[in-house]
Each structure stands twice: as structure tokens, then as C-alpha cells.
Amino acid sequence: MATPVSPIAIGIHGGCGTLDRKLQSERDWAETEAHLAQSLRAGWKILAAGGRAVEAVEAAVAVMEDSPHFNAGHGAALTEAGEHELDASIMDGATLGAGAVCTVRTIRSPIRAARAVMEKSDCVLIAGKAAEDFARRQGLAMVDNSYFTTERRKQALASLKALKARGTIALASEAERHGTVGAVALDGRGNLAAGTSTGGFNNKPPGRVGDSPIIGAGTYAKNGVCAVSCTGQGEVFIRHVAAYDIAARMIYAKQTLRQSADAVLEALGSHKIGAGLMAVDGAGRVYAPFNTLGMARGWIGPDGVAHVGTHKEILRLGAA
Amino acid sequence: MATPVSPIAIGIHGGCGTLDRKLQSERDWAETEAHLAQSLRAGWKILAAGGRAVEAVEAAVAVMEDSPHFNAGHGAALTEAGEHELDASIMDGATLGAGAVCTVRTIRSPIRAARAVMEKSDCVLIAGKAAEDFARRQGLAMVDNSYFTTERRKQALASLKALKARGTIALASEAERHGTVGAVALDGRGNLAAGTSTGGFNNKPPGRVGDSPIIGAGTYAKNGVCAVSCTGQGEVFIRHVAAYDIAARMIYAKQTLRQSADAVLEALGSHKIGAGLMAVDGAGRVYAPFNTLGMARGWIGPDGVAHVGTHKEILRLGAA
Known about the structure:
The structure is a homodimer. Chain A is α+β, with helices and mostly antiparallel strands. Chain A is about 35% helix and about 20% strand. The first copy, chain A, is built from 9 helices and 14 strands. Chains A and B meet through strand 3, strand 4, helix 4, strand 7 and helix 7 of A and strand 3, strand 4, helix 4, strand 7 and helix 7 of B. Strand 4 (about 125) of chain A pairs antiparallel with strand 7 (about 210) of chain B, so a sheet runs across the interface.
């Protein structure tokens, strides 16, 4: 590997729609934390070996897509029709290259498809069946739509449909509805990258596309500025161009990542929605604000110490 | 109507991929200009009667969608598969409300569907068949995919396929490939709006989504700042979050619309692509830069004088 010229860092999130601690067994929480740690390590290993930020982001997100504990890939939310439609995007801050897929049903790892769109096509965003055909041609793993289904999401869908039938949908917790996974990374060459993957929200209308596959809304990265992956009600993130707004405030208003992210989160929160994000700046400073009960998350900063958490508390796992 | 508190203005574009003047008959150019004028008047009439900027934008864009001279609606580009897949979006600068559809095949006026998504759904973006089902339920006009086909696009597709077969695709002019329509407006209450509609580009891969339905990339509006609709190779606009970047420079770096739009166009142009945009600021100043041979466009500023043009020259049509 080339001699590092930059500190390295990685941050991941598993969505800001964390359940109340009491609503899930301690065994499930422990497994959630273990999968966060596994995701972190998958990304960190690549960075520590001199790999690129986009590779680290892809690897970290793919681990969470494969885990049933997060709303992406296996474990994704169900549409009103009881099916899965997945969205993902990735951005390379070195080149402003980007790739994304939306409303895909049979690609096991949508983040890998997003990276293939970025690197192997002339497109940035490919929708639906055409994206599946593209992924198949790229040799990516394909699955039946039912591969993504878990008992928890089926129960959540049934519960949401019951609430809706009774006209009490507003009582549904953010956790039963939303969820997303994402990662941001800074590699040893100073390159930033960000990626996001999601099943959308439980009981979503078919065809609905949120912010996760939208560059500038759910995902953004630019070298020397920041890499951002967002989680929360996507429509508000799109309307606020949230991920790029964080970068724009840093570029044009000379705000720090923390000032900028706090300001954007406040603007999003003014719509009375749950919102969170994971971000890293060009110096490897990780920042992960959220306005909900919790946000599954983890990071390893330039000091090499791994942290994970699902609620306010953070577990320090020690050196990566 | 309420007493106006703001000057009114409208700007429209029919894409920056204008053909060389010699490549089309004078009769076709005259009809193109007539349709631009008709689009302008459709929007202006609403503004002058005290209507809302979003209504004016929708009406102006719908006229260009119905014209065979622009790459949107009837006259849209064809995919590699010889079909039409249309994208559109609209944004209300008063509320940051937004609506969009992508890869739709049977909605006569995608801009009307985008507005229905904004006002009659909880979504911002709906993709593919689900968007068509939504439009049908909203009572919008539905057509066969073949309604959008014109002889000119069939010839352009055949010509592009021939060039590609000979490996000389780079010789294809921007005009044979790209095209978009859009409108921006400022109403008497000081509300800004923007909308964009497109068939993408000739010989595009099925499923490809460009910047036109992406809020922040192809379309953006925020009261007191600007309304923007973009035209050019969409992938680059997405990666630069072009439409919102124009607003962000005005908000955070205190640039004028002209300074900001020029800077963004220069950044886009550095990718060696054709690019253009139509924009209006909160005071009704219209600005429409492009780096190509021409851009079909027109505007009526606060002085009430209509202008249209397809190349560098601008026709002053007189009072609207």
C-alpha cells in the first residue's frame, strides 16, 4: 500500500428508528450490537490495509444488509402489498462519482448494485427491473423477494395495517415504520465516501422512492468536506436536499461538520419527524446526531477505537 | 385576487440540445418558437390573474410536453428498446413541497402527475408502474406509449444505433441525444416554483433515471432565493446537486443568481458536457445561461415583455 497521507475513519448507522429498549429481548440487542461491530470491522479492515473509502463503505453496508436487525436487505420493510422494494446509493468523494438503484426486488445487496452502477455503467440511477437485469449481468447475487422477509417485519406490517384500519396510524412508532443503514469512510489517501441502503418504511405504497437512492438527499460525499448518510422520513430529506446541504454549509458558510449537521437536523426536525445521520469530515472527525430515542450506530475514528450503540449510551469496544 | 406584493415573472426552456439552425426547416423553427410563446402565455396568464407559481409552472411545462418539438411528453426520446420512459418533477418554493415521477410510460403529462404526487400523496417520488396507477386514480389523462413517438425521434434513434455500431457514438450531437423542458415562476405573493419534464436521451438504457425527477439536481425552488430547472446530461447534474447548489451559493455565500448560476454551469461544463438552465430569483430576475449552440427558451420578466429564442438570438415578442 501507498504510505497513508490521511488519518482513516469509518462511521456506520442502522437507522434512527430504534425501538424502546424494553420492546426487544436483550439477546436481540446484543446481536444488533454484534452486527454493528461486524460491519465496522469489515470496513475498517479495508481502510487499515490501504483500501479505498468506497470499498469500505460497500463492505460495511453489505454486512448490515445481510443482518435481520436492520431495515435493508434481509430484514427490510414490507410495502402495503406485502413485498420488498429496496433502494440504495453510493458516492465517491474523490471523483463525485455516484451510483444508485431504486425499487429493486431481487438484488441481494443493493449497495453492491449501486457501486456497480457507479463503476460499470454510464448511469447514476437505475430503477426497478432494469436495475435487476443490470445487476444480474454484473454477476451480483440475486434472490427471491421472499429472501428479505423476516417475522418481525410481517408482524409490524400487520400491526400497522390494524392501526390504519382503526384510524390510529399516528400511534405507530417511528421504529415500526422507518429504518435505513449507511456508512461513511475516510481512507488513507484522504478520499471520502458514503453509502446508504434501505427497505423504505413498513406499509409504504409500492413505487415510493425515498431519500436513500437520491444523491444529495440521503447520501453525499466530497473530498476535503464530508461524507454523509441519512436516516429518517425520506420525503423531508429530499425536500431539504439534506446530505448536500450539510456539505454546502461547510463549503460556502465555513461551518464545521458539527455546526452544519446540527443546523440541518434542526431544520428536518421542524417537520416533526425522526431524523438522524452519520457523517465524517475530511480530518476523520465522526459526528452522528439524531433526534429520536436512539440510532443504531458505530464508528472507529483515527485513534482506532471502536464504538457501538443503539440508544443514548455508547459501548467502547476497544482497539479495532 | 389578493393585491400583489411581488413582481411576477416566468421563464421556460425547451432543452439545451438545440440543433444547428441548418438541420431543421425554417417552418419547424417557427413552430418551435410559436410553441415556446404558447407555453409562456399559458403560465403568464395564470400569474397575471393572481394564480400560484406552481400552477403557472405546470401549465407552461404541459404545453411543451404536448409539442412534438421538445423532448418531453409527445416527442420524447426513445430508449434502446425503442420505447419511452418519462421523468418529471415540480417544487413549490413556498413550502419546499415537491413531487416527482420517474420511468413512466403511459401518463400523457408527467408534470401533472408530479404535481399530483406533491399535493395528493405522502410521497415525493413514485417510480414506474406504481406512478401510472397513481396517476390513473387521480384522473389524469393516460395514453399508449406510442402516443409519445414522433418520426424525428425514430430517425434519431436509428442514426444513433448506426453510429454506435460503427463505434463513432462520440460524433452524435448533443441534440440527437439530450433534451428536457422546464419552467420557473414567481407569483404575485412572492412564491417561487420550478418544474422539469423529460424523455431522457435517445438510445438511453431502460430504467435510467436522470436529474429531471431529482429534487436538488434538475429542479429546485425556495422562496426568497431562486427557482431553477436544468437541462443537459443528467448524471453530471445529479453528482453536482446542481439545482440546489445554485440556491446554496446564494444562501450561504451571498452570491447573486447570475454569479451562482455561472459558477455551477462552469463546474458542470468542466465534465465536457452540454448544460443549461432557466432560473428566476426572488425579485423576478430571470437568468438562462447555457454552454451549447443554443437553448430553446423564453421569459416574461416583471416588465411584462415576452422573449423567445432557440439559439443565441432572442426575439422580443412585445407585451404579453
